[in-house]
UniProtKB/TrEMBL annotation:
It is found in: Membrane. It is a multi-pass membrane protein. Keywords: Membrane, Transmembrane, Transmembrane helix. The keyword Electron transport does not apply. The chain crosses the membrane at residues 41-67, 79-102, 108-130, 142-162, 189-210, 252-270. The lineage of its organism: Bacteria, Bacillati, Bacillota, Bacilli, Bacillales. InterPro entries: ABC/ECF_trnsptr_transmembrane. Its main location: membrane. This is Energy-coupling factor transporter transmembrane protein EcfT. It comes from the Bacteria. Coiled coil: none annotated. One of its GO terms (cellular component) is plasma membrane. The keyword Translocase does not apply.
């Protein structure tokens, strides 16, 4: 009983909010945060697209090990890794169960293993970029690569506002808990508590959407007052905003090292087949 309660305390909304705030506002201490965002985005595009066209287990396993290393260097929040693992297990697990239901056997686990490696590579590459870099730098990198200013700002703003929305959601949940009544008995496997909190999640949805709309309107009014639309349409303003972006020898070394490692993987994959 005490162990279960301790586990639930670790996955509370407050804990998730703190982890998100650390991801959004504390990513500057990560090793990869000093890499130019344009370089990181180009690196991400390679590892987000190329694995889908590879069927060699040696190459995929090597890419997976590289993504694990870069994820560690990005210092991603633990709950993001947990969500990733649960998603991969759930997605691949039900596909394996369905394959057994339609006459498959254990041999069908091999292609699912390759699919899991591909999903893991793409997911870990996303975590590396979007957890290891400041949202403002990611938005500047997208803007420098030619993306619309509204899209670049929306992405960075979404990362900034996510911890605030979690805080708003926590306040709404607490207000409903103060006016409600927790079940006196948790029931078998805590099913009464699960039903109670699921009801709170449902009734908290609409107040959260209203609060989000209000914050979005306030943000838009503040941006327009400061000339956001006017400034982003002029090349001089864009040049001043992106003047801090510079590709250094560290960035070139990072890309060169990744390219050499990928070339070595393809060479090994042509001579040795692990999976």
């Amino acid at each position: 009983m005490q162990l279960v309660r301790s586990w639930f305390d670790k996955i509370s909304i407050e804990r998730i909010q703190l982890e998100l705030m650390n991801t959004v506002y504390g990513s500057g201490h990560a090793s990869l945060s000093r890499i130019d965002p344009r370089v990181m985005l180009i690196w991400y595009l390679f590892f987000a697209i190329v694995p889908w066209f590879i069927h060699n287990g040696t190459v995929l396993l090597g890419m997976f090990l590289l993504m694990v290393t870069t994820t560690i260097l990005s210092r991603a929040a633990p709950f993001i890794i947990i969500i990733l693992c649960l998603g991969l297990i759930g997605q691949v697990g039900w596909m394996f169960i369905i394959s057994l239901f339609f006459g498959g056997n254990l041999e069908s686990a091999f292609p699912l293993l390759l699919l899991t490696l591909k999903l893991s590579i793409v997911s870990l590459a996303s975590i590396t970029v979007f957890s290891g870099m400041d949202p403002e730098r990611i938005g500047d990198g997208l803007l420098a690569l030619g993306m619309p200013a509204a899209f670049s700002f929306s992405l960075s703003y979404a990362y900034r506002i996510l911890p605030v929305l979690f805080g708003e959601f926590r306040n709404i949940m607490l207000s409903y808990r103060l006016r409600g009544q927790v079940p006196s008995r948790p029931g078998w496997l805590y099913w009464r508590l699960v039903v109670y909190y699921m009801k709170l999640f449902v009734v908290s949805f609409f107040p959260l959407m209203l609060a989000t709309a209000k914050r979005s309107r306030t943000t838009v009014e503040a941006l327009e007052t400061r000339g956001f639309s006017y400034g982003m349409k002029h090349p001089e303003s864009k040049r001043l905003k992106l003047a801090h972006l510079k590709i250094t020898s560290r960035d070139i070394g990072f890309l060169a090292g990744s390219a050499i490692y990928a070339a070595l993987l393809f060479w090994l994959g042509g001579h040795y087949e692990i999976l």
